[in-house]
Amino acid sequence: MLRYQRMIIYLYGEDTFRSKQKLRKFKEKFIRERDNSKLNTAEVDGSNIELGELKQQITAMPFLAEKRFLAISNLSENKKITDEVLEFLAEEKMHQDVILIFWEETPDSRSKLHKFLSGPPAQAGQQHVQEFKPLDDGALGHWILEEVKKRGGAINPLAVWTLISYVGNNLWQLSNELDKLLAFKNKKEIQKEDVEELVRTKFDDNIFGLVDALGNKNKKIAVKLLDNQLAFGSPISYIISMLIRQYRILLQTQEYIGETSDTVARKLKLHPFVIKKALVQARRYNFEELKKIYRELLKIDKEMKNTSWDLELMVDLLIARV
After folding, report:
1. Among residues 94, 39, 89, which one has the least CA distance to residue 67?
2. Residues 278 and 207 placed together within one structural domain of the fold
């Protein structure tokens, strides 16, 4: 009986930026070394593909080449064919020289597909498995430095940590912010002040607008601003943490209403830009209202961490409670 000559690569995890980068590198390397014509390189969306079409893609013979490259994304979402695909992959009569890459974001670790792809290679031939977890702050700082270097720029360490504090570990958004900062600096070193001006100001403006909308109970505008942030790539958890931060600042600034923003900024050790707008917003609430909203946001944050919530439900819950 013919033996396996294929290779199965499994890339998965919450950090889709790095997993997509890895997938692209595999593809580019295959094209560069084995398939200049790109006739033996294919990518398919497994979430809605039919079983027959997927089998055809997997078993297609290389055309004037030794190997064929096939990337399959989000197959775990296609519940109706998953079991059949697994049976098909386990058949030893499959002997085509194919490099199969399965890409998933957050697969169910209990699923048969995940166990097969991440398990021992005895049934899958040569195998490579890599999980992409969100980077912690230390690894994130190194990632930013490397990305800036690859893009031909330089960044001050203080600017790195400022960027992390504003954006978090959302690499999609960080990548966009780095492009803007590098274009703005035109090869000069990115400084902390550049991050504050270009990154923080934009996010704070949206957060201030969202707080205004919530304070005025303008659900339509609040939903729109939340949708904008989500479309921009901000995780709902990060948006809620920023709202918690902003309402904490409003609670702190209430007792200083009437004083100058520079004076309050020194007392609270916050940026004058933040305090200037916070003083204006704090006048629109009484102390009890601020405490109530702050407590509700803390409650949402706790519930989100302890349970599994639908994203749209979280947004509706946030608007309804605040």
Report:
1. 39
2. yes
Counted domains in the chain: 3
**Residues near 121 by beta carbon (within 8 Å), at least 6 away in sequence:** 8, 127
Indicate whether 247 and 201 sit together in one domain: yes
Which residue segment(s) compose the domain that 313 sits in?
Answer: 194-321
The least confident of 168-182, 228-242, 286-300 is 228-242
Radius of gyration (Cα) for the chain, nearest Å?
25
Among 116, 131, 146, which residue terminates a domain?
131
Tens of pLDDT, residues 202-213:
566 666 677 777
- pLDDT one-digit tens code per residue, 224-272: 777 777 766 667 777 788 788 888 888 999 888 888 888 888 888 777 7
CA distances from 59 to 65, 91, 217 (A): 15, 12, 58
CB-CB contact of 187 with 153 (8 Å): yes
Within-domain flag for 54? yes
